[in-house]
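Appendix C reproduces, verbatim, an entry submitted by the partner laboratory led by Prof. M.T., so that reviewers can inspect both the input and the predicted structure.
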Amino acid sequence: MKYSINLFGSIVECNIKIIDEHLGIEIPKENQKALKNYLLRVLPKYGRQASNDSSLDALVKLALDAEKTLDGRMVEPKLKLPYEFQPEIKEKLIEAAALQEISATQLLIRIIENKYQEIMK
């Protein structure tokens, strides 16, 4: 079953599998790359050092450690875009983001990351 989960403040699309009463979560490769890029952006805000060479495993461990020290959850840094959208485009962006329960900025970042991964393959 496809499902969205919130990992460290990022909404991640995954597949939930139940086999013999054991619950498993499988995250597709492209979503793992997006999660890794997200963690690379966010972890420094929480005092954790990471580099592009860091494995996803190492980044997740750093994120778990960061969340243990917080009174809440990690969140993506807010980004104010230096330009305006046409009103109808802005409305579509806000509506699409609301349906995914993320901010419009987070949706733009996700779209850009997905396109970047597509181009760089």
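Strands lie at 2-7, 10-19, 22-26. Additional entries are available on request from the coordinating office.
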